[in-house]
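User: Teach me something about this protein's shape.
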Amino acid sequence: MEEIAERTSVETLLVREGSVSETQLERAHRIARHLQRPRKAAEILIEMGQLARGEYDRVLRLHRSELELADILRDDGVLDEAGLERYREARAADPHAPERALLADSGLVTEEQYLKAVSTRHDIPYIEPEVGLVDMSLLARASFPYLVRHHALPMRIGDGTLTAILADPLDPQLLGELERIFDVPVRPCCATRERIAAALRTLEQLREGRGAEVQASLQYREIEESGTTDVTGEGAVGILDFLLMRAIQLRASDLHLEPMQKRLRVRVRVDGVLQNLTDLPADFTPQLISRVKVLAGADIAERRLHQDGRISVRVDGREVDIRVSTYASVFGETVVMRLLDRRRGLVPLDELGFEPRILGTLREVVLRTSSGLVLLTGPTGSGKTTTLYSFVDYVNDPTVKTITCEDPVEYVLEGIAQCSVNHKTGPSFADSLRAIVRQDPDIIVVGEIRDPETAGLAVESALTGHKVFSTFHTEDAVGAVVRLAEMGVEPFLVASTLSCVVAQRLIRRVCPQCARPVEAEREDLRFLGLERADLAGMTLMAGAGCPACAGSGFRGRVGIHVVLLPDDDFRDAVLRRAASRELKGLARGLRGFLTLQEDALLKVAAGQTTLSEVVSNAPRDANARKPAALRALAGEGRFL
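Assistant: First, the predicted structure itself:
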């Protein structure tokens, strides 16, 4: 068969592995010949559903060492038969010539096409040399002329290895020189000479334009020494890249650019607490704000109205979505960038902070059932969305259909149909929910219940046999039940469908690198209604401050939760519209029920957080059980 004779090396591997048949491949080649734009046969098979993308990647990963760069380039459709013949002739004439010289430097393919083939063949990442990824302290260890001459961009050292972007990642002499300069092994990545050179120019301009060395901590120094405040062009790009990089390194949730009268204040919110990152001269403000607005798709000419936008960037091999909000203030536009790390957003269920036995009940009783309404409540910033995604990811299964309506979609989940609502142009939550029930779903996810119509539809969906997850803005778990009734949902519907309410807050974790025993502060004990004797047998821990936690003593946050699992008595009380006080009294007797303060005290006893964090973040509970009693109940499994 003519088509089989044209089979590329990758296609041969696919047939040999049984991933596709010769008949399927022959048909894909026939289709490819009738297309105006060249397409790989494998891509056509993937699009037709006859070859899974994961299977294609598996075969390529497993057998990449058997492929030649020319074969990969031919399979990618960038090297035709005539070019392949020219390559073979050049290779025969000079068997020892570098592949780069024969393929890219000769003009058979572009440098980018060549490097992407190198990436496939040698498992060397091809990445964009973003300035914001570079640890500036490394640039002091190698001269700029050397780096420019060899098209090398050192990025960072981690786990005893230097990650560097190189235009020629297969050059053993260059790799050896870099190892000697930085005294660590090199993990090469690749990018084109032009893009590496552009990044190095940006770094050079940024360093020289400020007249002072950029420190590894990115604490920017005053620019008056240099006598220039020009940050137009690549300089503004570089500074913004650095700010974003540092914010992401610090695990910040938000980056704030705040114009003041004589300076631009830059702050980050880390573990829920705002902290100063740096100050920049006021002259930097217009260019930096304009740069952000351009990236976010906002109107740079409009400075009097508040605007919103979104940016998507790739940092350190992971996707980071940035929600941008501008606010017209006295000294210029204030910008807040919400950093949504897609990978960091999906937290495994057992890392959310639930007590072990309560977590077991959630898995076996709440999440395992096929119907019912599960509500996650708490104020803004309490981690509701993270818990929601963890729940949904846990129940995600090929045998069920899950559909969401969110505002907006923050993290993409494989195998789930997700929809962003838009209250200005449509669809709204209610519109989406009406459409969802006609899509034959098993699980419905409503990003937030905001109005009576959405509340009614969510409850009715749960009543008809669907599993419904949603978030709700109430202060506590019982408040969610009361609020549903206030929104006009009939009590019998609430009592019949409510499966679980989880109320939560976030408290900071003690940094494990610098944790040490401490004594309880008198003010904290007084606020929590505790005596020192109540802490008998407990070792309180606090962080002393270290580089790992940027001196704060805390690293990361953990959830504290109220898990309300209604029993018959509680449902009866809901049916007869019992007052909130009675419902709260009944809730305390439910299995798995801990108040936020009680759950937080258990985490203090475990050395995970501090009493001051409990005071700051857990609503005060005058009737909270003492730590010793809580630990005894937890040990006996009384929270089941």
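Now, about its shape. The chain has a mean pLDDT of 82. The first strand starts at residue 152 and ends at 158. If you'd like, I can walk through any region in more detail.
User: That's plenty for now, thanks!
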